[in-house]
Design goal:
Largest sheet: 9 strands, mixed
Helix content: 25-40%
Number of domains: 3
CATH topology of the largest domain: UDP-N-acetylmuramoyl-L-alanine:D-glutamate ligase
Amino acid sequence: MKINKVFELLNIAPQPFTKLGLEKDITGITDDSRQVSPGQVFTAVEGHEADGHDYILEACRNGAALIVGSKKPENIPVPFLYVEHPRRALGILAAAFYQYPARDKRIIGVTGTNGKTTITHLLHHLLESSGFSCGRFGTVGNYMNGKSVEGFQTTPGVVDLHKCLYESRDDVIVMEVSSHGLDQHRLEGVSFDITIFTNLQQDHLDYHPSMEEYFKAKSKLFFMMKERGQAIIHVDDPWGDRLSNLLRGEGLAVTSIGGNDACDIQIDEVSDEGIRFLEGGKPSYYPTPIAGVYNSYNTLQACTAAAYLGVSKGTMVDALESFPGIPGRFEQYSMPNGAHVIIDYAHTADSIRHILQTAARQFDGNITHVFGFRGNRDESKRPSMLQASAEWSDGYILTLDDLNAVSHEDMTAALSKLHEEEGRAHGRIIPDRTSAIKTAVEAGGEGDVIIITGKGHETYKQSYQRPFSSDRETIVNLRNEMKTDVHQYQ
């Protein structure tokens, strides 16, 4: 790829001062000035925390052959190309540099507030079990060419994404698609064979101005489908119903899933164990490999997508029975005192309510909920999260989650204020997360349940009194400690 191709892709006529270098080969595309090497194109992107235009000189010193951006600098030694939307330009250039790798693969995108990780993991397992080689990009790690790939966020940066698609030898790629990724053009140049919408709940309103804008960001995925692309939408969710009608109005292919008679796949009965439904008037059933009614919906959407790729129902039922689970998603532990611990990533009011209700159906004992809120994130959802916990637990402990530059004192004060305004008598505050978990577990008895939400598979970002790096490590070490002193529970 040569520099003149950049002008062609961005539909910009070459300027006189660039003409001498138009035939130069481009060695790469990047928006990180630290990664620039000789011959690369550096695209200056303005982010929420840093502005790439401030690092143009660094990119030049590192050997950039061309700078693309929306703010023209003065006195730089290489050509500058002005564009109105650098993020979009970055995606266009990355897709072209890596020879449009999404065109030669079957790509499945999953979006929604809750359920993305579960569906992508289920799909990965279903497809691999049926003979496909399948890559997976998402919150709980990335998997490509039969091995883990480290270092990406939920939706990878657009350059990393195209590079991975180019290097992938997999038949199918299944990816979680975040609203941030869509809004920031991180999927520019990628077209999808199948798109899935789970639900839309209040979340990320620290980033999106309103639920309407959040919905619009999510909706972008469904207009990125290939010519024969297929959308699978849960229409019992009102935002899903709206999206389904919107897409049908545009003449796009939609499979609607819900309890309404007009749905393409009509849900008949749903439980923690499985989901019964009618498809084409014929009754069918899928078992749910992860507890929870909400996971039965996730299972149905994953199986519907796999069916579009030719996987038979019998193959899927067999595969669901061998599903290994997902780190940090309804992850269960039995403790020496007879209590049960569940670790989950739940971080919205709706997901908290679902997991507490599921535990209440599965266990007879008291439910204690340990959770917190992330600093510098959507504060408007905190009251509803606490209300869900207070309503469906027998006791809750507010504790710290990621502080994200908020001080320990300020976050503790925020917990106290919220507890005073929205809390109940059966709640308390223990700021240190490891101490909160220890307190909850040791107070439990036979059949009681301690549910720890918010972090799931993630590691801690700050230190606590006990030297552990995650909720899982805290529980495993606490269980071992309790085993050595098991007489106190006899």
